[in-house]
Amino acid sequence: MNTLINRLSRRERIVVSGGLLFVICFLVYQIGIASFFEKKGQLAYSIQKRKSDVLEMKLLQQEYQQMRTDQRDIQERLQSRSPDFNLFTFVEQQMNDVRVKDRVSAMNPSTSQWQEGLRQTEIKIQVEKIVLGQLIDFLVRVESFDKVVFVQRMVVQKSRGEKGLLDAQITILTFEKRPIQG
């Protein structure tokens, strides 16, 4: 090997040394420096992802706490509501007061299963050929914070053939507290 190097001219030795130095620097960069920066980038991304996850968990925790507060509030309002409260009767009374009962083509009540001492009761109502003012009056009267009655869903469209009148599908819901058995 020494004889091979000795046979090279000075200029060739410089070129070979430069090439060898380049290869060594390239390997050091690839193995050491580039992998260091790659790992540093991955670590920075991982830290940012963890921060984002922690923030999301805090938001979910706040949402959960708000839901628990709302649940307790509903439980308290259900305690103060009359034990003989009936959603169907309540809604029917509001329809009579606003004079829309004759515009109701369907009323379908349904209840869900008991969960954590509560059961959801809802009524799906189909109202036809009603004026906007009557619909608004009915909605204002039927939704009751104190009685825990809410409009869950509503679809309103123009009535077919009747100008200025509306058809509406309204889902009204409440909750019932499981009676205490003694």
Notes on the protein architecture:
It is elongated, with a radius of gyration of 37 Å. By secondary structure, it is an alpha+beta fold. It has two domains: 2-78; 87-177, Alpha-Beta Plaits (2-Layer Sandwich), CATH 3.30.70.60. It is built from four helices and four strands; from the N terminus they run H-H-H-E-E-H-E-E. The chain has a four-stranded antiparallel sheet with strand order 1-2-4-3. Strand 3 (149-158) and strand 4 (166-177) form a beta hairpin. Helix 3 (87-98) packs antiparallel against helix 4 (132-142). Helix content is 55%, strand content 24%. The mean pLDDT is 85.
Can you give keywords for this protein?
4 helices; elongated; 4 strands; 24% strand; four-stranded antiparallel β-sheet; alpha+beta; Alpha-Beta Plaits; 2 domains; 182 residues
In the CATH hierarchy, the third-tier topology of the largest domain is known as Alpha-Beta Plaits
Low-confidence stretches: none
Fourth CATH level, the homologous superfamily of the largest domain: Ribosomal protein S6/Translation elongation factor EF1B
The tally of structural domains comes to 2
Mean pLDDT: 85
The string of secondary-structure elements, in order, is: HHHEEHEE
Helical percent range?
40-55%
- For the record, the CATH class of the largest domain is Alpha Beta
CATH architecture of the largest domain: 2-Layer Sandwich
Beta-strand segment tally: 4
Q: N- to C-terminal separation?
A: 103 Å
Global structural class: alpha+beta
Whole-angstrom Rg: 37 Å
Spatial ordering of strands, largest sheet: 1-2-4-3
What spatial form do the alpha-carbon principal axes imply? elongated
The helix count comes to 4
Biggest sheet descriptor: 4 strands, antiparallel
